[in-house]
Amino acid sequence: MKIPSYNTWSHWHWAKKQEMKRQWEGYAWALITAAKNRTPISPPLSVRIVARFRDRRRRDIDNFSNCPALKGVQDAIVAAGLAPDDSTAFIVSRSLEIETGADRDEVLIVIEEAHDGA
User: Fold this and answer.
1) pLDDT band at 41 (very low <50, low <70, confident <90, very high)
2) Nearest 5 degrees, angle CA 97-CA 99-CA 101?
3) What is the CATH number of domain 6-113?
4) Where do the domains of the chain lie?
5) Burial letters for 90-108: b for 16+ Cβ neighbours within 10 Å, e otherwise?
6) pLDDT reported for residue 92
7) Are 99 and 59 in contact, with CB atoms under 8 Å apart?
8) ω before 44 within 30° of 0 (cis)?
9) Could you say which of 22, 55, 86, 118 would form a disulfide bridge with 114 (CB–CB 3.0 to 4.6 Å)?
10) What stretches of 41-112 show up as alpha helix (H) in DSSP?
11) Which residue has the higher pLDDT, 4 or 12?
12) Distance CA 38, CA 88 (A)
């Protein structure tokens, strides 16, 4: 799945935005549920999302940082039982990184226990 830029999703109908958020939540929930039995973690959590693109075009990170898909990932953390809610009491940091020149277009979701200063 790809993360659309703000320039793309800002023109979408609210229902299409909601559907994208729901798809991301389901996708992230499935990954989290599969992984949490192998590597249990507990709050506070740090969430890092890495959007990787094959091409080397320059991208403005602000165009991706408020995408509804990212909210879907946070909601999946709650739905999968990693945190009681997605407030800053449990998810203390969320970062987005953009990488270009990757082998393929993909999005990596990294959820870790937050350490001091996370």
Assistant:
1) confident
2) 175
3) 3.30.1330
4) 6-113
5) bbbebebebeeeeeeeebe
6) 94
7) no
8) yes
9) 118
10) 62-65, 68-79
11) 12
12) 25
